[in-house]
Amino acid sequence: MADKPGTGLEAGPEQILYASILEKGMYLGLLILLVTFAVYALGIMKPYIPLDQISQYWSMNVHEYLEHAHIKTGWSWVGMINYGDFINFVGVAVLAGVTVICYLAIVPILLKNDDKVYAVLAFLEVVVLALAASGLLKVGH
Amino acid sequence: MVMSRKFYGLLVAKLGTLFLLLCSSPVMAAAEGAVAAGAQGHAWWFWPLVLLIVTFVMGILAVLGGVGGGVLFVPIISGFFPFHLDFVRGTGLLVALSGALAAGPGLLKMNLASLRLAIPVALIASACAIIGAMIGLALPTHIVQIALGATILGICVLMLTAKKSEFPDVQEADRLSSALRIYGVYQEKSTGKVVDWKIHRTPLGLCLFILIGVMAGMFGLGAGWANVPVLNLLMGAPLKISVATSKFLLSITDTSAAWIYINNGCVIPMMVVPSLVGIMLGSFVGVRLLAITKPAIIRWIVIGMLGFAGTKALLKGLGI
After folding, report:
1. Of A59, A89, B237, B318, which has the most beta carbons under 10 Å away?
2. Chain A residues 56-115 within an 8 A CB cutoff of chain B
3. Which residue of B has its CA nearest to A117?
4. A81-140 pLDDT, tens per residue?
5. What's the domain count of chain A?
6. What is the predicted ipTM?
7. Residue A51 belongs to what domain range?
């Protein structure tokens, strides 16, 4: 029979699983980010915004930047990953997405341990993060 | 060995002082001049390179000063670089998120970060961070800048006055934390002592995480500066559990806020990657220097930097 949560010196199985997925996702995300940035900065892939013009954009507010550069919000970057700058969003998305996978992975363990309250809390967290990631929540200045 | 300790201690103190001087010197004034002039006179790689160097120093000082990278990044970069606050906040969140992702797995495996403590807190904080991010992006920039300056100065006061309790005295766990079975055991490595811990005042603590989540999302700061006092002083978790759980908690809170910034266009890779690399390399060096420097001196330097950057943000917001 499994120990009650919090009674042993060792971390519980759901915590170990969470940590393991988080670690793999973090390394994967960072690796992708570094490789894609090298591709971008070395000019291997053509950027959407030319490197010599980038400084004209980063001092604008985000609304002006999107308007001047003709960039759409939400997940529209997926359709632009053939550009050197937008391919970097893949690594960013992995880093920002790994937590959702961690939560989804521990729900079955929590249910197996009859820890229904935490299973519901974990599921609600998935809903919150999915809502944030969905691109449905748009803001304007 | 003693010479080497002295050398590294002096090096770090000098780095911090140099950073402070840079922030207040003609070099930064010239940089600000370039910013005011539209920053047109530089090659495209100039500002990303300066960003890399500054965030490297920031990474060292953040580790030694016991603060997150985000809390230094947002006020300093928004105050002295040509980048708009919208992009600085988006990048700041990704900087704080990456730091939390890097530290989280180890802290969870060592059972210092408590998933049971983090899950209910994170649910509230991450939901509120979304609201904070949306408010922050909807408000006029100067209002956010004023609020950011005031918050940073508040953090300085908190750092100067807040006490820490290694093993808070929790006579009895409250009903909510008992029902959620939020308690644990860990071994204090320095003494070999096994510490049983539990928490109290959980409802009040959870309410405060509403505010912490909103502020984390609104300013892109990360929120370790607020998490630790609430978990440790209010809810009574031991200091190590509080610090570790707070760091891990940021990986969830900042994820939700970061998505709002990403989806609203506030991520420019040419700012994000040099910042992440700089902060992470600086953190690696900082961890190695931690054993041989005097944290008290570095803490004062960090408070000084925050005070300066907070005042700058406030004045910028007020148009002074």
Report:
1. B237
2. 57-62, 65-66, 71, 73-75, 85, 88-89, 92-93, 95-96, 98-100, 106
3. B180
4. 999 999 999 999 999 999 999 999 999 999 999 999 999 999 999 999 999 999 988 776
5. 1
6. 0.93
7. 14-134
